[in-house]
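Support request from a user on the community tier.

User writes: "When I paste my structure tokens into the form, the page sometimes reloads and wipes my input. The last time it worked, I copied everything first. Here is what I submitted, just in case something in the input itself triggers the reload:"
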């Protein structure tokens, strides 16, 4: 919690920034991402004893070393275990997954308990991601050993724990990796459920598109955060859902995907979120090409897509320049 120095008392008054931040966001004075950046900066530079101790323990080099060391250890372990995986017993395979899960969750819990600089929170989030991967490995091993007749059960058994853990760790806090974990778990669970219920692909597409749209609206209205990452997941989910409509009708599916991508571009421009804008532009050009290929010959379709690409670039640059000029004045 960011504190503010009170000249009358000569002490830092905690919570002042957090008390006013929501009002600033509501009045459009700052975005969620700007608020998160200020919090990260102040947490890294606030002159408290605990903060100084945490910073000395976890420098940028230390953080990088933890990331690289973890990845190298996981890759090495996967290579070693992978060679004899088939010969291992079920308890041994499951135990490996649970051991990775325990390591990730315990390490993450110890890091987040420090309540220090932003890098410790990032490390905790990364370790929780590893822990969730361990749970996925253990549940996948158990599901595989059960040898279900319907493959959809495997997806559900893996997806539900990943979804539950991701959501529990995320809790609508500034934890991008847990947003991704939650999305992956939801995708696996929905895919498995759809397979078990023999849901038509086009109907599943409508459901996925609707969920993604709702998620995006909640992010824009500041009910879900971090906005950038939730919007990114929603944009990709909406595109996947729209493309699934191709199962019913190719032209309809490509048209829905093109319209959805155009909406993503509009949101990216309106919210000034460059990554969302990039996702939207790439998806728009690809879906537009697919739409045109169903009605026009290849050369004409390619020409229209090229013109559309140039038009999008011009619009984006013009809007960005106009916005910058307005702020300058």
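"...and here is what came back when it finally went through:"
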């Amino acid at each position: 919690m960011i504190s503010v120095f009170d000249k009358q008392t000569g002490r830092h008054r905690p919570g002042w920034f957090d008390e006013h931040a929501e009002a600033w966001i509501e009045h459009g004075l700052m975005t969620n991402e700007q608020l998160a950046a200020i919090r990260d900066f102040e947490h890294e530079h606030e002159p408290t004893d605990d903060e100084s101790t945490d910073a000395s323990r976890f420098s940028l080099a230390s953080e990088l070393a933890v990331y690289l060391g973890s990845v190298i250890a996981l890759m090495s372990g996967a290579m070693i275990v992978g060679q004899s995986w088939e010969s291992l017993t079920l308890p041994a395979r499951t135990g490996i997954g649970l051991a990775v899960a325990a390591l990730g969750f315990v390490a993450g819990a110890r890091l987040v308990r420090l309540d220090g600089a932003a890098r410790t929170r990032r490390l905790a989030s990364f370790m929780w991601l590893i822990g969730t991967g361990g749970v996925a490995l253990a549940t996948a091993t158990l599901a595989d050993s059960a040898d279900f007749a319907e493959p959809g059960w495997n997806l559900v058994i893996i997806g539900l724990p990943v979804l539950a853990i991701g959501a529990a760790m995320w809790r609508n806090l500034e934890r991008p990796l847990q947003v991704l974990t939650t999305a992956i778990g939801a995708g696996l669970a929905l895919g498995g459920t759809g397979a078990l219920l023999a849901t038509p692909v086009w109907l599943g597409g409508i459901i996925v598109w609707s969920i993604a749209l709702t998620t995006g609206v909640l992010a824009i209205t500041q009910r879900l955060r971090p906005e950038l990452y939730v919007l990114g997941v929603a944009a990709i989910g909406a595109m996947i859902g729209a493309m699934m409509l191709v199962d019913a009708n190719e032209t309809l599916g490509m048209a829905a995907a093109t319209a959805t991508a155009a909406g993503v571009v509009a949101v990216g421009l309106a919210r000034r979120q460059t990554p969302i804008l990039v996702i939207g532009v790439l998806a728009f050009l690809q879906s537009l090409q697919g739409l045109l290929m169903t009605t026009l010959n290849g050369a004409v379709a390619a020409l229209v897509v090229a013109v559309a690409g140039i038009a999008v670039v011009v619009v984006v640059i013009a809007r960005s320049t106009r916005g910058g000029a307005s702020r300058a004045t």
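Agent notes: The reload is a front-end session timeout and is unrelated to the input. The longest strand covers residues 3-6. The mean pLDDT is 81. Escalated to web team.
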